[in-house]
Design the sequence.
């Protein structure tokens, strides 16, 4: 991963912080890669940045042109199935935050 190439603000960021379980690392990685691939095809998607430490704490920030695009991504059926799997198997704790980026430098 590298820095997302975002446009001049304003735009939106969805910040997903999570703590992984020990459950099925390989399958998790495959699904995570699929979610990025699907998101890139979603209208309004601008980019993504992600990192996870050795203890399983991770942050993924996806960037979107508007709130409607974020809403449509949240309603994506494949994304919803991955979210349910994450809640059930892959995350011991998580939080999603949505914010408006008004300035970057």
Sequence:
């Amino acid at each position: 991963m590298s820095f997302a190439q975002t446009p001049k603000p304003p735009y939106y960021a969805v910040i997903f912080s999570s703590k992984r379980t020990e459950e099925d690392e390989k399958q998790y990685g495959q699904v995570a890669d699929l979610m990025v691939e699907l998101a890139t095809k979603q209208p309004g998607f601008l980019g993504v940045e992600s990192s996870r430490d050795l203890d399983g704490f991770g942050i993924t920030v996806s960037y979107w042109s508007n709130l409607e695009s974020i809403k449509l991504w949240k309603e994506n059926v494949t994304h919803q199935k991955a979210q349910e799997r994450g809640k059930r198997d892959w995350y011991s704790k998580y939080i999603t935050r949505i914010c408006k980026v008004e300035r970057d430098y």
Remarks:
- The chain has a mean pLDDT of 95.
- The first helix runs from residue 25 to 40.
